[in-house]
From TrEMBL:
The organism's place on the tree of life at top rank: Eukaryota
Record-level GO cellular component terms: centrosome; HAUS complex; mitotic spindle microtubule
Pfam families in the record: HAUS2
Gene responsible for this protein: Haus2
Biological process per Gene Ontology, one example term: microtubule nucleation
Protein name per the record: HAUS2 protein
């Protein structure tokens, strides 16, 4: 009969609501410093990434300018200008030819180097994909270990049953 007569009075309902609000405010106050520290770390990270991005963009512009002059550079490197402007001893002619060959090879591979530089902004996405794949692999390893344990237990039970 006491349970039937017991009703929540409006003052206790209000008290419960106030208690819930106080609990929510306490949770917010606990989480707020963590959010602030994470936000600060992200700001620092984005600042440094922005600086590195600016440097890479400047370098990319420089390399693109060199690529535009690629034909002229090839002609100048292939042309036997060494004999015209610089007196080089005969013993060093072989070295000069090797250096010029290396330079021409570098200029030919310049486009692939530029592609590598252009792919740098995609690295964070690639790293996220690697992290995701690593997590999935770890889950598979855990599941495999559990299955191995179950198989070993089943094998022992089978031995006991047959013995």
């Amino acid at each position: 009969t006491l349970d039937l007569t017991c009703r929540r009075t409006p003052c206790f309902v209000k008290f419960a609501e106030m208690e819930e609000m106080v609990n929510m405010e306490a949770e917010i106050n606990e989480v707020q410093p963590l959010l602030l520290s994470v936000f600060t770390q992200f700001n620092f990270a984005f600042y440094f990434i922005g600086e590195k991005c600016k440097i890479l963009q400047d370098m990319n512009k420089h390399l693109e300018a060199i690529l535009k002059e690629k034909r002229d550079l090839r002609k100048r490197l292939i042309k036997h200008g060494c004999q015209e402007s610089l007196p080089i001893e005969a013993t060093f002619h072989k070295c000069i030819v090797e250096v010029l060959t290396e330079a021409v090879t570098f200029i030919e591979e310049l486009e692939s180097h530029l592609q590598s530089v252009r792919s740098i902004p995609q690295i964070p996405q690639m790293m996220n994909n690697v992290d995701t794949t690593l997590s999935k692999t770890e889950m598979c390893v855990i599941e495999l270990e559990e299955l191995t344990d179950q198989i070993l237990k089943w094998k022992e039970l089978q031995k006991e049953v047959y013995s």
